[in-house]
Amino acid sequence: MGLSGSSGRLHVTIDVGRVRADTPGCEHVVHFNNAGSSLPPRQVTDAVVDHLRLEERVGGYEAAAAALDRSERTYDALAELVGADRDEIALVENATRAWDMAFYSLPWKPGDRILTSRAEYASNAIAFLQTARRHDVRVEVVPDDESGALSVEALRDMIDERVKLIAVTHVPTQGGLVNPAAEIGAVAREAGVTFLLDACQSIGQSRVDVREIGCDLLSATGRKFLRGPRGTGFLYCSRRMLDRLEPPFLDLHAATWTSADSYEVRGDARRFENWEGYVAGKIGLGVAADYALSLGLDAIEERVTGLAGALRGRLAAIPGVTVHDRGARRCGIVTFTVDGHDSRDVAARLSAAKVNVSVSAAYSARWDFEARALPSLVRSSVHYYNTEDELDRLCEALPSA
């Protein structure tokens, strides 16, 4: 996937002119911070603003009732996006809360083991450590393979009857690595162990199918590569897990108060939701999912992967620039350093040139950064609306080593 032809130019399967026309931000900045928050397409922004205007005119409850079909469409769009059924989708305010609602629903007992990857995000790792303190649970990091991805063979060797959960980040925040989710899923299914996949960075830039992967639970956000509104996210919970998980928080949406001293948790994934929510954002999230589906997830992945590979090639050719991405399979996140320059200073210089990037620091993924003795990285994350000319602009704006 990605580059084709003897010229090394990208094989374009997406109408880049059209998607850039749909993206007003392209007129103002070169946006390579899609792993933080993408530029939304006009269709998403219009959907959110239109609903807010409706609330302004008729009231919030009334607007929600009038737009029920649009908000319900979001469940269908997200289910199609990840290969699930609509009753396996819950809408929540962000990926971290989606992940937390799944993780903290699991019953723990002393001696249980959590197996995870070295590339885990800080919020997940903190939750692991908190649970270890509360329940005398062991958190164990699975070694990497020779490419830097989680070693599936090492994972298989670590499985025993005490392993309660395999929890892995599909694409880490700090690099272009793609962990072998389907192979991990096969190990989990063979062992009968629950598999929680953090797909925060992979949803929207590649095809993610929960049936093929075999995960029991998956969390994701709207604002990153999916190009949805901030303050939106979702959780996939497989139907086979629903009756085994009672969320840590319940309200009158997640459960029914059946008598003075009893309640009944609802039977679908919406047990992980709460009654109050960002209706305009939920509608916008569905529009973003439909937009991605209309372009085709395979075409998106080809375009994003190709642009990222082209950027890595350009950066590697610049004296003093080191690309730090790992993994046999890589995605749209490109991380690098410039000799003699702090990553924050590099990002500030690029910002002054109207090129948006971000910085990944040790506090966001300490197990990985400390193992590689890296203080911080410049993170440039491409999307299908970016162009090769924009890759050149980034490289030209870098300071000299």
From TrEMBL:
Annotated GO MF terms: transaminase activity
Protein name, as recorded: Aminotransferase class V-fold PLP-dependent enzyme
PROSITE patterns documented for this protein: AA_TRANSFER_CLASS_5
Keyword tRNA-binding (UniProt): no
Lineage: superkingdom: Bacteria
Stored Pfam families: Aminotran_5 (PF00266)
Cofactor: pyridoxal 5'-phosphate
InterPro entries (UniProt xref): Aminotrans_V_dom (IPR000192), Aminotrans_V_PyrdxlP_BS (IPR020578), PyrdxlP-dep_Trfase (IPR015424), PyrdxlP-dep_Trfase_major (IPR015421), PyrdxlP-dep_Trfase_small (IPR015422)
Residue ranges of domain Aminotransferase class V in the record: 31-394
SUPFAM superfamilies assigned: PLP-dependent transferases
Gene3D superfamilies assigned to the protein according to its UniProt record, in alphabetical order: Aspartate Aminotransferase, domain 1, Type I PLP-dependent aspartate aminotransferase-like (Major domain)
The family this protein is said to belong to: Belongs to the class-V pyridoxal-phosphate-dependent aminotransferase family.
Keywords: Aminotransferase, Pyridoxal phosphate, Transferase
